[in-house]
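During the second year of the project, the team shifted from modelling isolated chains to modelling whole assemblies. The rationale, set out in the original proposal, was that interfaces cannot be judged from single-chain predictions alone. As a representative example for this report, we include one of the complexes processed in the last quarter. Its constituent sequences, exactly as entered into the pipeline, are reproduced here:
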Amino acid sequence: MTEQITIIGVGLIGGSFALALKQAGADVRFVGYGRHEDNLIRAVERGIVDTYSTDLADAVGGSDLVLVAAPVGANAVLFEQLASVVSPNCVITDAGSVKQSVIKAARQYLGSLENFVPAHPIAGTEHSGVEAGFASLYQGKRLILTPIPETSKEAQAKVVSLWQMTGALVETMTPERHDKVFAATSHLPHLLAFTLVETLFRMEQKEELLRYASGGFSDFTRIASSDPVMWKDICLHNRDSILDAISSLEYGLSALTAAIEQGDDVAIEHMFRVAKQTRDEKILSKVNVE
Amino acid sequence: MTEQITIIGVGLIGGSFALALKQAGADVRFVGYGRHEDNLIRAVERGIVDTYSTDLADAVGGSDLVLVAAPVGANAVLFEQLASVVSPNCVITDAGSVKQSVIKAARQYLGSLENFVPAHPIAGTEHSGVEAGFASLYQGKRLILTPIPETSKEAQAKVVSLWQMTGALVETMTPERHDKVFAATSHLPHLLAFTLVETLFRMEQKEELLRYASGGFSDFTRIASSDPVMWKDICLHNRDSILDAISSLEYGLSALTAAIEQGDDVAIEHMFRVAKQTRDEKILSKVNVE
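Output from the structure prediction step:
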């Protein structure tokens, strides 16, 4: 029997989810929901969803599953609205980059959490919006489930099987650990990239400066082209872990500054060697292997 | 008539220079010089140089031009040794990422600066060493000349024409401006990448953390795999401009931290928007155009 899935937010993450399932041959009818009708029309044109509605009750009516793929700041309002319109058996899952705050919002607004499955696909590009989605985004990438005790096995199994169809590798983690790990490995690099570009913007003769900010600089700051609203929300919703991560980086930057000021060649070289060795052995090899 | 060029340091920069000129059909005999004979043997095997010597007088004897492509920390000693062994008409040029300190060392040790041409190719990869060089490295990349009043027109013209043969686009800049511009657009991103990876290395449960540091993190930290000795030297030799750049970034990071602490969504989003817009409009387009 054809299932119906509602995609809330037909951008990079939600759009790629639908496209991947379609490409995998899933027998699913996709309904799009969002704030901007032109995006929804474009999502139909691109074959991301089969139909759409700008009315939430209409968009989720008859759906077996709802994927919330909006910036995490929108979750509380969406959950509150969803609670009164979804059918009792409808599974609700999300794709938010922060998990504790999403779970907190779900507890507060969704009522029963039996059908709520918090998840986070570790995939993305610096592009966003309805044009950005593509079917192979999740191929070979991780999908992190952060289960909560209330979730039913059936709901979780349904979400796992859909993500596996997209090509993702499903893993589980506690919400607390998730938020710490991705504060360090994802959120911190994004904030640094934003801050670095904004720093150049503040400098004198910035037009000339930016002429030379190509090549390595352009690669390094690719993620500074990410969606400002999404990342503002992540900052506010993973506040404590992000502040810890920034503070830890600032400690390293202060140590480096002191070493440069003191001309401490041994300390500088040691720090760079630790970094190079860590990346060459632990990070590069990971990517090659997986 | 066949010219003779001595390459001091047959790694990524020096090796690619020789390979590019050979590919362009330059009538040049290349002589390699370095501290490690096995690298020099390998450079001959790879066709980078035609011959080599571990004796500097021997390596530069009869050469029309010497390219100093060693970490900038080695320049002072090399210039001092070169001064007593090069022929009076031999052009000396360098490829250092810092220019004021190289010029200072040249003034102090080279004696006459008539044949000294300070230069910096804006090209590289995170790889280093004799295996890393390749003929197309400089194709379409900038070569920044930072002329000094003493340099003869003939010496400068010779260096310019060689770099043009490698495919590089030659520009000029004052040494002071060069050091400021590249502190911000190259040195700072490298130091941030090193610091970010070293920060993860310091964190608890780092093995698990590093498992998730793939994808975007891996791209972002590619330059943390760069040569620690080269970058230690850059830190010490472009000290003031680098400290200014770090300080400017720390200002941005403090502002972001404060905004996160205060839950100031407007300030956070504004900062990210400035960064995204700057990168999308000024940086990405640069790379696409050139």
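The mean pLDDT of chain A is 94. Residues 201 and 207 of chain A are 9 Å apart (CA to CA).
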